[in-house]
Structures are given as structure tokens and as C-alpha cells.
Amino acid sequence: MNEIAILGNGRVGGNMAAALTRAGHQVTVADRAQGAAAARTAQIVFNATPGSGSLERLAALREELRGKILVDVSNTTTDGPDGLPADLLYPGSSLAEQLQETLPETRVVKTLNTMLFSVMTAPATLTQPPTAFLSGEDPQAKQTVHELLTDLGWRKEWITDLGGIQTARATEAAILFVPHVIRSSGFAPFALSIAR
User: CA-based diameter of the chain, in Å?
Assistant: First the structure.
């Protein structure tokens, strides 16, 4: 059992909190006002805040996040007129890299950002196996997150470690698929998958 804080209480954060609680973890969901207290007592912190404000919000928690694992599941984009992602906020970089640079004593792991939020905690509901990618500098932190993913129903063969935090550029760029997929197929659960 881990003590986990989830920053962000929207659809992503709420869904993640329910699933991790069912898996036996002690979970606290925190809005902006409660973030510091929740991060201070947790071993693992999930960033499920809207990506455009994540860097500023988490930078303010530098002390609380020192030595912790920060699991970043957010994407950072500017939205088009229809409210769907239109472009990346950090072209040539990624939110995960910005977080790791800003929080050098925090172990950032990027994952679960290449799928609709409902798939994060129910991967077996898709007709084909999805892929969860891991990006991060700390092997032990990635192993811990790997174990959390298995608690959420991810099979070992569905999880791919891409390497260092810079590889998050690729998975974050995948968000640009989303508006086109939604326009062509509707708002139905989907995820990227590596077929072998």
C-alpha cells in the first residue's frame, strides 16, 4: 500500500483516485487549496491538473515534492475554437521535462497520457491491448509506477519503458491525434497501441 496524493479533482483525478483506492492504496484527492498538505504526506503524487497550469502549480510545491515520485499524466496544449487540443504548449520540449528541470529533487515519471482518461484505469475494456509508456530518469521510480500500473489492470506486456524524461516529448505530442480521432469516431474510449 502506498500513500498517494492526486492533484486535480476532475475526471482524470477522480477516476484515478477511485481505481487506486480499490487497489488498496491510501489516496487523497486535492484541489489547489489542499495541494501542499496532500503532497507533504504522500509518497507518490499524481499530477492530474490541467496541463496549461501544471508547471506553475507544481513549482509552488517544490519543498513538498522533494524526494517524492511525481507521476505526470497530463498533456499541455493550446485549444482550438472547438475546445480540443490544437498545438503543444512546449514545442521542442514537454511538460514532463519542464517539471523535471523545475523540480530537480523530484523523480518525475510520465505515463498514461496517450489515451482517453477512462482507459487509464480500465485498459482491458478495449478490443485490442493498449500500450502504457513510461518516461523518466530514475529506474526505481519507474519500477514503482510500473507496479501501480499493474494495480490498475495493466499487464506487464502492455507497458513500455521508453527511457529518459526526454522521451515524453513523443508521448505528449501524441495528444495531437486526439481531436482528429474524436471528430472521426466520436468520444469513445481509445488508446495508442504498439502492435508487434
Answer: 45
